[in-house]
Each structure stands twice: as structure tokens, then as C-alpha cells.
């Protein structure tokens, strides 16, 4: 069994985000990049399936700041092979990123055949759509997203995938493999890996760097950002100042005033 | 339909979603401003009666096909692509829910046009359509244009009140036939949520914890506050994914939609997927260490502080006030 996991870095929104001088994109200088959270869940799910069924897990990542840390972390967790696609301009749209992934999957030796291609269900910068359905579309494979449980019937070439619906309802699907699945959450939280093990992986393992496809003009119109700005929260909430005790007193008085307790 | 504004009606388990009516309300505004008709597209199996409920639209094009009984994204997209291929509207508004997730992306690829994700509003400026998008977990707003026809605009829930899109009028309806191939993705069954003791929708007070609560042990602090206020503890997705609270306590897009009198968000950033589940609460209080957390955009009262440090003081203050009023 072979599972491919697609990894993409996104800005860490715990940090303050700054808009670039042209007012149309984030200022890259101030960004701290982290692995897209649901990609981390996709990796965890792949590793759990490998533990259950044997086989190999390959991660495929797009070059980005800090991506090597994420890749070596994946290797330390038990990923068998890591391919990093390099040599394209920064600031790809999601559609372009999906295209680079799809081209690499189709042409890079050893990535196909794969029984499953897993990636995160969504990323916070997916302004023009989602990677998983795009890659599925480009490769002509089945797609399903918002997956939180995944079991495999390898002889029957079928995955049983549980998708989340609104209201806590879930749907169990049979999906013919190979398929591209957008993972929302692995069946358990992503494993913790000590930094020492990541450092050891940096010494003993290597990342395959491969050139990405050159993106010819795809002939489809791209989403144009006219203006980007920070969502300033100051306007709405009445902020209660003071230390924990004082702020608590103020809030308590307000809630009592509203007759809330 | 050429030049018109279209809404992709979302039907799931025999019901039209709230977000569809919201999209119809917004679509109506945009269509009126441009002076073009508003059309709804509905797909499913035995959906003719549902088509008649989409009266906010001037007309409804519907597709009835047994393979469309469940919302399988690639089949759904294939059907809508066939509907739109010959009749390119100006824009297609798509509800952004777990049911439709992926459909807009697939449609855009099938039609060779752009899709705009994460829209909270759509405006007409000099005859151009502009979408206001909420990205990066709610921290950034982008104004974007999507050239090409149709521009596919995906709407976060809450763009307009659903009631504005519920119009008691029979639209003109037209059935369209499509050709579909059996799908490699098949629904086996639905799994209903376990109610597990507490029904979040029946609580007057909810104390909701997010990733900022930091550990399973700290949830006890939120439970103390909930107890003092006579409410229950709820959570955001990461808290549920960590297994710190059961699934039945999740508020948001995949979880429960709640409208308590008081919602206290503790260490919750205010991502759109969480907001849509609690934005209509009576009084919203947020405690977050990040002064720029988007939750402060919808909260009525905010405290910039460490939740773990603040919770004991707040619980103590409430208990003290309660005791005092009992003695008074
Ligand atoms: C299809 C889909 C469906 C989804 N459905 C849901 C859903 O139903 N419900 C849901 O909640 N999410 C849902 N999400 C996830 C959503 O996008 C967010 O990831 C999630 O809501 C974030 O949860 P959070 O605010 O707890 O965590 P974070 O976004 O990580 O925020 C944590 C916050 O805590 C603050 N903080 C940290 N430490 C402290 C401290 N000591 N004191 C005070 N504050 C602190 C930080 O400043 C930050 O604002 C869904 C996502 C997708 C793609
Ligand atoms: N350079 C590109 N970048 C991103 N997407 C592309 C690119 N070229 C084509 N596509 C999309 O990929 C899909 C398949 O394209 P093709 O294989 O070129 O017919 C189409 O829906 C295109 O919109």
C-alpha cells in the first residue's frame, strides 16, 4: 500500500499579519509559516493506516519558508520518502499550487501508483478553491472531503470514509481507490515528536528536491485581489480593561445588569 | 439565463439549507441592482416540490436524477456544469457548507472559470461584481474580483438573514435533463449525533473553550464558571479533536448551531466556521490573549487576558455576587 500526503505551509495566524505595501497580499517578511493544520491530520491518518496495513507513506511538499522543518518532522514520525518541489515563484494561488502538485504526482517517478492521496480539507488561504478536489480533478480521481475516519479494504480496493455534515451528523461513504481525500481530522490527534528525533532525522534522512512544473498560462481567469486589509476588531466589542480581578468584576456587573445570572 | 445571477440551491436530506435562502436574499439584491433576473439551480431526486419553495428567484432550473439523491460532489458538479454550459450566467452564488464543500472548486475547473472562496458579501461597483472575502481564520478581509462568466462566489453562512430569502411566491420552474455516470463515491449511511446528556441548543448560558484553554485539566475551570452561571460547557473544533470534550459539545459549521442568552468564548480565535454556529447568541463575551482575535469583532464584551489566569477570578466574582444577592 502506498499513501501520498500533500503538505502546504500557511501563515501562522497567531502572529500579527501585515499587509504588503501594494495592499493586495500579505507582507511575506513578517510571516511565520506553519504546516496547514489539516495537512498534519492527513499525515497522521496516513501513518495510522501504514501501521495497520503496512506499506509506505510519501509526503510531497511545495517549497516554502520553514517547510524543511515540517518535512523532517514528517520523516521523524515515520514517513518513508519526502519529495519537495522547488523552483517556482512564491505566492502561488491554490489553483496553481494544485497544478504543481498534480503535475509532480503524474510525472515524478515513484509517486504513482498510490492507493490514496491525502491532504488537508482546507487551508486558511484557499481563496480560489480547495487543493484536494483540484488535484482529484486534474488526475481524474474520485474526491471526498471533511473526512474524520478512514478504514481500508485493500483487496476490495475500497476506502470507507466518514465525512462530517452540519449538526454533528456524519456520513459513511464507500470510495473506490485510488482517491483524493480531504482530511479534516485524523482519528486521533497528530502524534507528538520530540525535537531530538526531528534533529536526528535531519542528519540521517534526506529530502528529494525536484523541479516543479512551469505554469503556463492556464487559460482560465484568476481571482484578482483589489484590496487586502486587516480585519480590525476594535470596532465592535466593549473592551474591559484591568487585571484579572478588576476585569472580572466589571464583567460580572455587566452580566448581572443584563439579568444573566 | 445569460447575464443573470444564479444561486446554487443546496438540498440535503430533503430540505433546502438556510444558507441557500441567505444566498437567495443576497442574489436578489445583486440581480436587482444589475437589472437582471435571479435564477436558482436545484439538483436532487424528487425535488420538484422543493423547487417551488425557492420563490425569491424569478425562475428555478431543476435536475431530477436518482444519482443526485445524495450530495456527491463530483456528480453534483457534473450536473450543474451541464446546466450552465449552454447558459452562462453572470455569477453563481454557492452556499459554503459541509454539504457543498468542494462542489464550487470542481465546477470552476469544469467550466474553466475562477471560484472565489470565503465570501461574506458581494457588491456591484461600476457594473463590476466585487466580493468581500474573510481569509486567514478571520484576520484578513480581501476585496476581490472574479473575471469570467459565471464568476463562482462561495458564501459563508450569515451573508443575509435567511428570512429575507424566503418568499411566498411560486417561481417559474423548468426541468433540465443531464447525463451522469455512476460514481466511485457512494453513501452507505448517515450516523446521527449522540446527544450524550447535554443538549447545547437548550442552554441559556454556554461557556465555550477553544485551543487557548491549553489542556484537558483546564477545562475544569470552565466547568466551574458554567456551574456558577447555571450553564454548560461547549467547545471549538480543536478541543473536540483533542478528545477533551465529546463531539456533541462542538459549536460551529460541523457541530451545533446555538443561540443561548449568554455565550462566553474562552481562548477561541473566532474563525468563520466557529462564528457561524454562535453568532446569533444574545450576549457574547470573549476572553482572548490576542487583542486582534477576530472573535472580538462579534463579541459584545471583550477581555484581553490569559483565560487560565482570568477564569478563577471571574468564577469567584460571580459566586460572590450570587451569594450577596441571596442574602440581600
Ligand atoms: C469544513 C470545516 C468545518 C469546521 N467546523 C468547525 C466547527 O464546527 N466548529 C469549530 O469551532 N471549528 C470548525 N472548524 C475549524 C475552524 O476553522 C478553526 O480552526 C477553529 O474554530 C479554531 O478553534 P480555536 O479558536 O479554538 O483555535 P485557534 O484558532 O487556534 O484559536 C485559539 C485562540 O486562543 C487564544 N489563546 C491562546 N492562548 C490563550 C490564553 N492563555 N488565554 C487566552 N487566549 C488564548 C489565541 O489568541 C487564539 O485566538 C471547521 C473547519 C473546516 C475546514
Ligand atoms: N497552469 C495551470 N495552473 C493551474 N491550473 C491549471 C493550469 N493549467 C490548467 N489548469 C487547470 O487544470 C485543469 C486541467 O487542465 P488541462 O490538463 O490543461 O486540460 C483545468 O481545469 C485547468 O483550469
Overview of the structural elements:
The complex is a heterodimer of chains A (261) and B (328). Chain A is α/β, with parallel strands linked by helices and 261 residues long. Chain A is 29% helix and 28% strand. In chain A, helix 2 packs across helix 5. The termini of chain A are far apart. Chain B is an alpha/beta fold and 328 residues long. In chain B, helix 5 packs parallel to helix 8. In chain B, the strands form three sheets. A nine-stranded mixed beta sheet of chain B has the order 9-8-7-10-6-1-4-5-11. A five-stranded parallel beta sheet of chain B has the order 14-13-15-16-17. Chain B has a two-stranded antiparallel sheet with strand order 2-3. The chains are: A alpha/beta (261), B alpha/beta (328). Chains A and B meet through helix 4, strand 7, strand 8, strand 9 and strand 12 of A and helix 4, strand 7, strand 8, strand 9 and strand 12 of B. Strand 12 of chain A pairs antiparallel with strand 9 of chain B. The structure holds flavin-adenine dinucleotide and adenosine monophosphate (AMP). Adenosine monophosphate binds next to helix 3 of chain A.
* Class by SSE composition of chain B: alpha/beta
The CATH topology label of the largest domain in chain B is Rossmann fold
Order of helices and strands of chain B: EEEHEHEHEHEEEEEEEHEHEHEEH
Classified by CATH, the class of the largest domain in chain B is Alpha Beta
How many H/I helices of chain B?
Answer: 8
Order of helices and strands of chain A: EEEHEHEHEHEEEEHEEEH
Uncertain regions of chain A: pLDDT < 50 for 5+ in a row?
A: none
Query: How far is it from the N-terminal to the C-terminal residue of chain B, by CA?
Result: 69 Å
CA radius of gyration of chain A is 21 Å
Molecular shape of chain A: globular
- What topology, given as strand order, has the largest sheet of chain B? 9-8-7-10-6-1-4-5-11
Integer count of domains of chain B = 2
> How would you sum up the major sheet of chain A?
9 strands, mixed
Tally of strands of chain A: 13
Helix content of chain A: 25-40%
pLDDT < 50 runs, ≥5 residues of chain B? none
